[in-house]
Structures are given as structure tokens and as C-alpha cells.
Amino acid sequence: MRYTLLTYTRPEDFAKVPPEELGQLKGLFGAYIGALKEAGILAGVDWLQPTSVATTVSEGGDRIQDGPYADSKETLGGYMTIDVPDLDTAIAWAKKCPMAKIGAVEIRPSASEE
Amino acid sequence: MAEVMRASYGRLLAILASSGSDIIAAEDALSDAFSKALIHWPKEMPRNPEAWLLTVARNRLKDTYRKDKRIEFHDEVPEPEQADATIDTIPDDRLKLMFVCAHPAIDARIRTPLMLQTVVGLDSETIARAFLLPPATMAKRLVRAKTKIRASAVAFRVPEPEELDDRVSAVLEAIYGAFSRDWLAENTLAEEAFFLATLLADLLPNNAEVLGLAAVITFMLSRHGARIRDGKFIPLEEQDPAHWDQALMQQASTYLTKAQSIGELGRFQLEAAVHAVHADRFNTGTINWDALVHLYRGLSHLAPTIGTTVSYASALGRTIGPEEGLAALMQIDSKVRVSFAPAQAVEAHFLQQMGRTEEAATAYDLAIALTVETPLRAHLAAKREALTPKLH
């Protein structure tokens, strides 16, 4: 079963993290991705720039807008798609994600296997 | 037929749902098997009715999962003596089903209804009545939970040792939720909660809290017949022990003794010990209030709740005096105290004992206003009435 882990954080919380810890966090995140690869379960991953540089296309392409689709305090920071047997295993991996400490990790099961 | 259904429903459903986490398909297959049984069993009763049902339901499940829906459904049923005779060797998956129902990814409010429907086999309308919800609302919430279990592949398995305590707690909460649901009402779920608690005690016989909860529910059930007389609620210490169910009291004591022998203190075990002190009145004729003070003190450390503080104050009032009891009661935040009926009832009782009759009357009035259960209101009204001659 494939699950996508979506990481949500508040940019203001990130801004509060001191630069040296930010570097440490990047290291932790790199190690986490390494562990997912090592376990042979990583099916996709990307890490996104802030919503301040987002562009949104809607209304069949008629509307092109500077900024994110939804204005919310928590923004999507990245995703990892993992292939594991069940939700408990997905939860166990989500708990280990460094982003779960700063913000939240949302687990969404894949719809393409339904 | 009804007996087979009651005894087998949860066991068969758990077996059918465990491999694919698909409770909805398992329910459909099982209900199909029961309707086929209605047709075939009157003609010839199978040797092993449970195995017969499992075979029919499994065939139906295979049809459900077949991709090509044009293929004819198999409608044949097994010969009465041919049905899968191996069922007795299939492990009981109901424990796993309970862990799925009380999974942290499932909304806590639907865990109890889900367990009642899948493990006990209670229909959704009966559950809706007990939870004071429109049947359509309850049905929708149950389907949503079952859909989530399937869609996100919540595995049917016993949790790892490091998370077992938390997961067991969630199962215990869900079972206790069924018991405490509208406990003086007619559509009580006490029997269903008893079924779940004792089943869990059979499946996890070495867990002290599991045994503790089984003891609590069994003790409380043993006194069901003694709680209301002539439409009026009778407090535990005023009940006639002759109205208590002896067999259930014995069963409850056995659970408690087993729980205590494990040597791990827990909330339910202490609550069960409180019930055991009251049960002792059957033999001794008296209540050991000192023991109750001790147990409530332990409970307030382990699982502090307002209810525990009120019970502690009440026991303290009995052993030392109403002044001390009242002082303990005053430890509760005043806003909480004036909105909690049991606190007001105990406060009224102490004030009455101290001769502060008018304050006692006010506290009883407040307790009555905060109480919805008719027999309990009648009990409080009688206590309030007894004050009248002393009021100026």
C-alpha cells in the first residue's frame, strides 16, 4: 500500500529556528530520507520552496494568480511517498519524520490502488 | 439461530475481515450467509453451524473480490456435513478487531459504536438509540469509520509490546464507554459491555487492567437489579445485598483476584477494589469506609477525576466527620463543583449533618436541577423533602 506523507509547518515557526539548528534539521531530514531509501520503501520525495513564490492556475487556466491556492497558516512543505504494508507502519515512519516535531505530518493513502 | 448469531457473529466477522481490513464486505458476506441459513437450516441443521456460515460467507467474499463481475455468483451452499470443519483451529481474531475499532486513527467517539456493531453484532439502529442519535447519522458515522479502515489499510494485528499499554487503554475506554452510556436508561448497553469486557479478559488474560475492567463491569452488573426500587434510585450503601446477583459477584471477585496477582496497579483495578469493599457488605453487614478512603486516595493519584474527589470526600466524611469531608470537597474548583450534580448531593448531605439546613436545601435544589435521570431525581427530592420540617 502506498501512502504519501505531507509535511505541514507554519513558516513563522520555521523563522524562529536559529540558523545553527536549521542546519542540523537539514541534516536530520537528509538522514531520514536516507533511512527511507535504506528500508527500500521510498517511492517519491520532494521538498518545496515557500508559498511566497507559488503560482496558482484555476478556472480551466483562465485564472493565473500570484500566490498559493489556499491562504492558511500551515503550509505544505514537502512530501514523501512510501510503500509499506499498512497504516501502523506508515504512522511509525511519520513519527520519525523530523517535521513531525516542528509541524505536522498528514498521512494520505494512495487512491490509485483502490 | 439467534443464539448462533449472538455467539458467532463477532468471531466470524473478525475472521472474514482480517485479511483485507474490509469490514463492510465481511458484513455483507456474513449477512448473506445468515439469510441462506434461514432457508437451509430448517431443512437440515449442519453439524457445525459456525463452520457452515464461514464457508458460505467466504464463497460470497470471493465473488465480491472477483474483478470480472459477469461471472455467475456461486449460490450453492455446502452440504451440512461438509462445511469447513477446521474452524475450531482458526485463531480468534476478535482481539485484533477490537484493536482496529479503537485504533488511534479512528475518531474516539465512534470507537464504542463500532465495537458494538462488529464484535457484538448489535444493529446500527439499536446503537443509535443508546447514543441518542438519529439512526441515519449513526449509520453514516459507522460507514465512514469502516471505509477509512479499508481505505487506509488499518492492519488487523496485535500491537507491538512498546505500544501495547496505550492501545489496550483505548480498547478499555471504548468498552467502558458502552457501559457508562446512559446507565439508568432502559436501553442500557450493560449486557453488551459485559460481553466485551469478559471476552477481552479471555483473550488477554495476563493484563491487570483488562481483568480490572472486567471486574468493575461484572460487579456493577451484579447490582443492576438493586439500583431502582419503586421508581427511586437507591444509593449503593443503602441497597439490599439480597438483591445482588451472587454468581456475578463471585465472577467479579475472581477477575479482581487475578488482576491483583499480576502486581501492577491501575485505575480499573482500584475501582474494582472499591466495588469489592461494597460487595463485602453481603458477608460482613458493614462497609469498611477506611479501606474506601485509602482506595480513593490511590485513585486520585493514579487517575484524578472530579468523580474520584467527590467519592474520596464522601468516604472521608464517613470516617472522620462532615467537616473534613466538606473541606476535601472544597478542593474542587468552585465553578466545576456547582455544575457537577454528585458534588452538590454530597455537599448537601454534609451541610445537613452539620445542621446548616438552609444551605443543605439550596445544595439539594441545585443537585436536582443538574440531574436528568428520573429515579435519581426522585431519590434527591426525597432527601430534600426530609429537610423541610427543620427549615424556618
Topology:
The complex is a heterodimer of chains A (114) and B (392).
Chain A: E1 2-9, H1 11-16, H2 19-38, E2 42-47, E3 55-58, E4 63-66, E5 75-83, H3 87-96, H4 99-102, E6 104-109
Antiparallel strand pairs in A: 1-5, 1-6, 2-5, 3-4
Chain B: H1 2-18, H2 23-40, H3 49-65, H4 94-101, H5 108-120, H6 124-130, H7 135-151, H8 161-180, H9 190-203, H10 208-222, E1 228-229, E2 232-233, H11 246-262, H12 267-279, H13 281-284, H14 289-302, H15 306-319, H16 322-329, H17 334-337, H18 341-353, H19 357-369, H20 374-387
Antiparallel strand pairs in B: 1-2
Helix pairs in contact in B: 1-2, 1-3, 2-3, 4-5, 5-8, 6-7, 8-9, 8-10, 9-10, 10-11, 10-12, 11-12, 12-14, 14-15, 15-16, 15-18, 16-18, 18-19, 19-20
Structural write-up:
The complex is a heterodimer of chains A (114) and B (392). In chain A, 35% of the residues lie in helices and 32% in strands. With 114 residues, chain A is of the alpha+beta class. In chain A, a hairpin with a 4-residue loop joins strand 3 (55-58) and strand 4. The longest helix of chain A is centred in the first third of the chain and has 20 residues, at 19-38. The radius of gyration of chain A is 16 Å and the shape is globular. Chain B has 20 helices and two strands. The longest helix of chain B has 20 residues, at 161-180. Among the domains of chain B are: 2-89; 99-184, no CATH class; 205-285, no CATH class. In chain B, helix 10 (208-222) packs antiparallel against helix 11, helix 14 (289-302) packs antiparallel against helix 15 and helix 15 runs parallel beside helix 18. The mean pLDDT of chain B is 91. A two-stranded antiparallel sheet of chain B has the order 1-2. Chains A and B meet through helix 3 of A and loops of B.
